[in-house]
TrEMBL record:
GO biological process, one term: coenzyme A biosynthetic process
InterPro entries, alphabetized: Depp_CoAkinase (IPR001977), P-loop_NTPase (IPR027417)
Transmembrane segments: 236-257
Cross-referenced Gene3D superfamilies: P-loop containing nucleotide triphosphate hydrolases (3.40.50.300)
Region described as Disordered: spans on this chain: 65-89
Full protein name: Dephospho-CoA kinase-domain-containing protein
Natural source organism: Lasiosphaeria ovina
Signal is among the record's keywords: no
Database matches in PROSITE patterns: DPCK (PS51219)
One term of GO molecular function: ATP binding
Keywords carried by this UniProt record: ATP-binding, Kinase, Membrane, Nucleotide-binding, Transferase, Transmembrane, Transmembrane helix
Tagged with keyword Kinase: yes
NCBIfam families associated with the record: dephospho-CoA kinase
Length: 277
């Protein structure tokens, strides 16, 4: 089964591309890291308890208030396992470039990422067992978390103009101040750097889906990318790998080794560029 890593940055259109890939004519299963990240910190989970333990003492509004709008919420939340996390309050702690924000973001990632990885592995195994020729791994920080090493193909949804990204984010989330929006964009890295990383992979291993225009143009970009992927990984090859699990393991290990090599070359090139500055 081909694992297609899908990434981008906030407000570049990654969710729209994910929706397009999950619908006909592609109908690919999508393993959504953001959705899994929410599930693994639901009240009562180990992730929830760890977040409350770390952030609770210094974040008085970490949990949603028992009374919201005109509805009353029990002290222990609607499930009786605890009040839900107040995500805006948590976001203010972890988004930004300050030393405190970076420290808190690292702590949050250390809690959430291992649980999300386990959930991803289970979802990928179920997709393979169901006979899907490919599955989409939708991860905002695909490169940063090194999950691209496990992907046969990486798709980066990007925009060429940073102002376009900021304008879309402010339109989508009008409650964000300009500073908050900028912090959220910076927290996910420059999407143009991610586009370059995808292109370095070469051929069908790394493709960029540019989203500088409207939805129709974006759909055309997705169609173009999928044509390249289908040509490099035809359906008959996917069937061979499904029918012969040992071959699938060998191909997976080969792809992993190739991706590690590509990432090492990228890191070395980045160090050389920085040394010139």
């Amino acid at each position: 089964m081909l694992l297609i890593g899908l990434t981008g940055s906030i407000a570049t259109g990654k969710s729209t591309v994910s929706a397009l890939l999950s619908a006909p004519p592609y109908s690919l299963p999508v393993i959504d890291a953001d959705l899994l990240a929410r599930e693994v910190v639901e009240p009562g989970t180990a992730g929830y308890k760890a977040i409350v333990s770390y952030f609770g003492p210094s974040t008085p509004d970490l949990l949603v208030s028992p009374a919201t709008n005109d509805n009353s919420m029990p002290e222990n939340g609607p499930t009786g396992k605890g009040r839900p996390l107040n995500r805006p309050a948590l976001g203010r702690r972890v988004f930004g470039d300050s030393a405190a924000a970076k420290r808190d973001r690292a702590a949050l990632n250390a809690i959430v990422h291992p649980a999300v990885r386990r959930a991803m592995l289970g979802a990928a195994a179920r997709a393979y067992a169901a006979g899907h020729r490919a599955a989409v791994l939708d991860v905002p920080l695909l490169f940063e978390s090194a999950l691209d090493r496990f992907c046969g193909t990486v798709l980066v949804v990007a925009v060429r103009d940073p102002d376009t990204q900021m304008r879309r984010l402010r339109a989508r989330d009008p409650h964000l101040s300009a500073n908050d929006a900028a912090n959220r964009v910076r927290s996910q890295g420059d999407v143009r750097d991610k586009a370059r990383r995808a292109e370095v992979r070469g051929g069908a291993r790394g493709l960029v889906v540019w989203n500088d225009a409207g939805r129709d143009e974006l759909a055309a970009e997705v169609r173009r990318a999928m044509e390249v992927i289908d040509a490099a990984s035809p359906r008959w090859w996917s069937m061979v790998l499904w029918l012969c699990p040992p071959a699938a393991v060998v191909v997976g290990l080969w792809n992993f080794w190739m991706n590690v090599r590509i990432n090492r070359q990228w890191a070395e090139a980045e160090l050389r560029e920085r040394a010139k500055l």
